[in-house]
Amino acid sequence: MSRLNILVVEDEDAIRGMLMMVLEQAGFKSIAAVDAEDAQKALNDISPDLILLDWMLPGISGVEWARRLKKEPVYRDLPIILLTARGEEEDKVRGLEIGADDYITKPFSPKELVARVRAVLRRSGKIQGLAQIALGDLVLDTEQHRLSIGDKQLEVSPTEFRLMQFFMTHPDKVYSRTQLLDQVWGRSVYIEERTIDVHIRRLRKILGEHGREDLVQTVRGFGYRFSLME
């Protein structure tokens, strides 16, 4: 099986070298670009499976280039992960709103980088998903469609299972109702945003029966976060 291509767009030599080394060790093929212009030229020669893109680049910023790229039909479905040192929620939301599939806040560990790259590639259908996703004593089995805490199986609906799968592959990040609906139900389906509140309440009730209702947290004025940390 051929290796998947990751286009790494980062202007700092040391960081770019580290990213490429980590990706190569994880089994991916990495292609380097130092800015948006260089990356655009690379797209003429290769068809990357994912772009790892620094937010702040000389000339055209990474987020602006991603916005332009997503407007082109040929690149609309090309997965993009933004690398950013920005910690403010509004900046993270902006990145997702322009079409980025995920973001990673610097500094990050190589393990987190590879996990997020693989998660985005799974969602885009580039690679098959893992049979099990485990966080602490919480285990989600994607083949058996089972969610369990320890040795106890939780009774959840198919929609709540997909919601938990998204939460467990994106821990410690805040998502608005609109973003959750897009990710779990899909952008082509029209559903009231408040529908997400109903499923969140049900999930909390089910998790609460096992003393874990705190896993799904409300972030006032924005949305929800799934986290094992209080």
UniProtKB/TrEMBL annotation:
GO terms for cellular component: cytosol; protein-DNA complex. The modification 4-aspartylphosphate is found at residue 54. The keyword Zinc does not apply. InterPro entries: CheY-like_superfamily (IPR011006), OmpR/PhoB-type_DNA-bd (IPR001867), Sig_transdc_resp-reg_PhoB (IPR011879), Sig_transdc_resp-reg_receiver (IPR001789), WalR-like (IPR039420), WH-like_DNA-bd_sf (IPR036388). SMART domains: REC, Trans_reg_C. This protein is a positive regulator for the phosphate regulon. Transcription of this operon is positively regulated by PhoB and PhoR when phosphate is limited. This is Phosphate regulon transcriptional regulatory protein PhoB. The lineage of its organism: Bacteria, Pseudomonadati, Pseudomonadota, Gammaproteobacteria, Methylococcales. The gene is phoB.
